[in-house]
Structures are given as structure tokens and as C-alpha cells.
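Weekly modeling sync, notes
Attendees: S.R. (lead), two postdocs, one rotation student

Agenda item 3: backlog of single-chain predictions. S.R. asked that every request posted to the team notebook include the full sequence so nobody has to chase files. The rotation student volunteered to paste the first one in as an example of the format we agreed on. Action items at the bottom.

Example entry:
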Amino acid sequence: MIIGLIVGALAKLIMPGKDPGGIIITIIIGIAGAFLGTFLGQAMHLYQPGQSAGWIMSIIGALILLAIYRVIKGRSA
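Predicted structure, as returned to the notebook:
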């Protein structure tokens, strides 16, 4: 959870703007970003099967999810 918080917070720092979410959303985006980064890295053959993403790919995954979250949350608000 701490890594998820760090990755999510870094993604929010890189992508400034109004975020409709608190610390729980930040942690969820960070953790899910790490999973997305692993999936994308394995799909692009950057990682071997069973190997997890590093910090950079995790942050890239979190940035993608944060952008999607902002679009979805922006429409419903």
C-alpha cells in the first residue's frame, strides 16, 4: 500500500490539476498503475513473464489510469 501511495502521489505530481479523489483513490490508482505497467511491459516484451514492473512503468501505468479517472469523473460531476 505504501508503494501504491508513492506511485499514485508521483503520478498526481507529474500530472497536475484538480483531482477528484483523496488518499484512498491515490493508493488504488498507484497499485492498479503498477499492475497496468506490468501488463504493458510484458506485452511490449520489456519484462519476462512473472517479472513485475519497475518504478517508471508503474508511474506510467498510474498516469494512464489517472487520465482515465479524470475523464470519467469529470463527466459524472
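Discussion: group reviewed the output briefly. The mean pLDDT is 85.
Action items: rotation student to repeat for the remaining queue; S.R. to check formatting next week.
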